[in-house]
Amino acid sequence: MQFNKAFDDFTARKAGILGELGLVCIVGSVAYGTNIPGKSDLDIRGWAFGSLDTLLGYKGDFEQLEDKTSDIVLYSLKKYIRLLVNNNPNCLESLGLNEEFYLFKSPAMEELMANLDRIISSKISQTIGGYARQQLGRLQSLNRKGDAIESVAIDTTHTVLTDRLKRDIIVRVTNRRDDWHEEGELRAELLTDISGLTLKEVSDVTERMKILTLNYNKLDARNRKVDEAHMNKHAMHICRLLLFGSDILKTGQVRTCMTQDHDLLMSIRNGEFQEPNGLYGEKFDKLVAECEKRFGEAKATTKLRSEPDMEWINKFQVRVLKEKVMEMI
Fold this sequence. Notes:
The protein is an alpha+beta fold. The protein has helices at 5-13, 15-18, 29-32, 52-56, 77-85, 89-92, 107-114, 116-119, 124-165, 199-251, 262-269, 282-301, 310-328, and strands at residues 21-27, 43-48, 64-67, 72-76, 102-105, 171-177, 186-192. It has two domains: 5-121 and 305-328, Beta Polymerase, domain 2; 124-301, no CATH class. The chain is 57% helix and 12% strand.
């Protein structure tokens, strides 16, 4: 089997550990249908049976192998099944990809997929719901970071001006376009009113203000860079997780490609729910609340089993690995 050079080189180096492959697939934004052509990475996931040494040797089985540079992660079959039993969101995605994203599926993987109803359970309301809440917390933390940058800039500028001029000077942040026209980029700017100053007072504060403005612009640019690179995508994935989980709870099926909610998710990724200052406010909060409501309704009416069928799963794992060992002896 040959996929791409990075993957082939990686598996060749790890062949003594991996043994035969059981699944190779493309996951992430490309599989969700929310990728931006030319900008999204290609994430490859899968699992392997393990070599005879890892299955029977004294060192024991491997858990997972990864190449972070090439975004490749391969689990052992045992860990892959354990993640599925725990309804891990990242692993569940591999059960419901569009067919073109499966680069290789072994008969064992086909059997797992055919018995989806024995594996997934209402536990996903805890795993997917919990993961979404965790990601929302991270986004809120980034929001607070942006607010903190503005607060520090205002306080510092106010202190310097008041100290130098011996009077209380109001400082605030406003949003202006760089070229003062509608087409210009909207960005945060420090604004203060120092009208009525003498020439000497202007001279005293000018150099200090240059330094403060330069430092604020650096902080603002750094924060905006984080926003542009990560925050819209991060916000989109919060909603994607809740909608993905809602669909599984409602239908009992795993559909990784977000066809039904594609336009909504892309509007988030394209920044339509972001405030002019690069942060997230009431508009996005309302959207998350709607997604959470949909998730809660699906959870209340789901017909999924309460626990995976552990008896079947255990027999499957023992049988498949026993057959694989017999092939290699």
